[in-house]
Design goal:
With 345 residues, the protein is of the alpha/beta class. It folds into 2 domains: 139 residues, Four Helix Bundle (Hemerythrin (Met), subunit A) (Up-down Bundle); 196 residues, Translation initiation factor eif-2b, domain 2 (Rossmann fold, 3-Layer(aba) Sandwich). 39% of the residues lie in helices and 17% in strands. The chain has 11 helices and 17 strands. A 7-stranded mixed sheet has the order 7-6-5-8-11-16-17. The protein has a 4-stranded antiparallel sheet with strand order 1-4-3-2. It has a 4-stranded mixed sheet with strand order 12-9-10-15, covered by helices on one side. α3 packs antiparallel against α4, α4 packs antiparallel against α5 and α5 packs across α6. The longest helix is centred in the middle third of the chain and has 27 residues. The chain is globular and about 65 Å long. The N terminus is likely disordered. The structure holds 5-S-methyl-1-O-phosphono-5-thio-D-ribulose (MRU). 5-S-methyl-1-O-phosphono-5-thio-D-ribulose binds next to α2 and β10.
Length: 345
């Protein structure tokens, strides 16, 4: 079911006022149409995550938490039946996308809430999900505060979409850009188009234009030439999972940006909430990388771009080694990868 509404303040993942449905701004339709999905089953929520109607690591976690809070209103009332239905729902949501660790943090948060719930279990899960989302929004605002002073004036390159759409609101890397702009820094943004799904061209450009922040879109293969001409001063990206040693999984193409920054001696910043750091993992090679449908590469705007019979590869993420990361901006402060490794223990 869908309905058309425009929120004054962009909260792309939220509950209806009575808590009976999950409202998602359908990111597949942007920038052409602002279409809201109205969901109330685990299967519908899982499919929204898989189909990229909602995407971005923190937003996926928030969607899973709120989706469970909504769907559990239809679960059996009796304690054992309720708990069993919750476990099935958590297992389905955990199978949607493997790379963003935020999803698993959110599900763990909900499981812990369930364990301590009294008689009104749906109310407990709703409160837990809303607290999770509020915490994620607060984390973005903190990231913006910590990160804004680091950005130089001039042109900032970003990759994929890390804004309000990808989070509980405000954004991570885009939140840093938003805050720097609000503080009066003279910043222009170059948004990598981010093939094959075009999160940069469609979503980052849409968000920044909405906020009046100067933005231009470039094809993913243009950044090197622009850097070589001195036209880019820094890059900032988000993350789907960061290991204890500071290796960063993010949207495919991020590694290329980091290598280019290294070659051109430009700062390469990663902005992410603490919930994106996977303390259980040391090396980036351990991070599961989602392989998506090759048709996302074969087709563009409904037209096939490749000869029938030719294959395509579609890893959704790559891993940037810690050595290429200047600093990681979190809601707990700014860390070099070495400092992060010490803080993570
Ligand atoms: O496949 P996506 O669009 O979910 O990938 C999103 C990214 O790679 C983002 O950069 C990352 O999740 C950080 S969002 C604040």
């Amino acid at each position: 079911m869908t309905s058309s509404t425009t929120a004054a303040f962009l909260q792309p993942v939220r509950l209806s006022p009575d808590g009976s449905t999950l409202l998602l701004l359908d990111q597949r339709a942007l920038p052409g149409r602002e279409l809201w999905l109205v969901l109330n089953t685990i299967e519908a929520v899982a499919q929204a995550i898989e189909s990229l109607a909602v995407r971005g690591a923190p937003a996926i976690g928030c969607t899973a938490a709120l989706g469970l809070a909504v769907a559990c209103r239809g679960f059996p009332v009796e304690r054992g039946g309720f708990a069993a239905a919750c476990e099935l729902a958590i297992a389905r949501l955990a199978r949607t996308r493997p790379t963003a660790v935020n999803l698993f943090h959110a599900l763990q948060h909900m499981r812990a809430a369930l364990a301590s719930a009294g008689e009104d279990r749906p109310a407990t899960l709703r409160a837990a999900a809303e607290a999770y989302v509020a915490g994620e929004l607060e984390a973005c605002l903190r990231i913006g505060e910590y990160g804004a002073p680091l950005l130089p004036e001039g042109t900032i390159l970003t990759h994929c979409n890390t804004g309000a759409l990808a989070t509980a609101g405000f954004g991570t890397a885009l939140g840093v850009i938003r805050r720097a702009h609000a503080l009066g820094k003279a910043i222009r943004v170059l948004a990598d188009e981010t093939r094959p799904v075009l999160q940069g061209a469609r979503l980052t450009a849409w968000e920044l234009q909405r906020d009046g922040i100067p933005v231009e879109v470039i094809a993913d293969n243009m950044a090197g030439a622009l850097m070589s001409r001195g036209e880019i001063q820094a890059a900032i990206v988000g993350a789907d999972r960061i290991t204890r040693r500071g290796d960063v999984a993010n949207k495919i193409g991020t590694y290329t940006v980091a290598v280019l920054c290294h070659h051109h001696r430009l700062p390469f910043y990663v902005a992410a909430p603490w919930s994106t750091i996977d303390l259980a993992m040391l090396a980036g090679a351990e991070i599961p990388i989602e392989q998506r449908d090759p048709d996302e590469v074969h087709f563009h705007g409904g037209t096939r771009m490749t000869p029938i019979g030719v294959g395509a590869r579609n890893p959704a993420f790559d891993v940037t080694p810690a050595e290429l990361v200047t600093a990681i901006i979190t809601d707990r402060g700014v860390f070099t990868p070495a400092e992060l490794a010490r803080a993570a223990g």
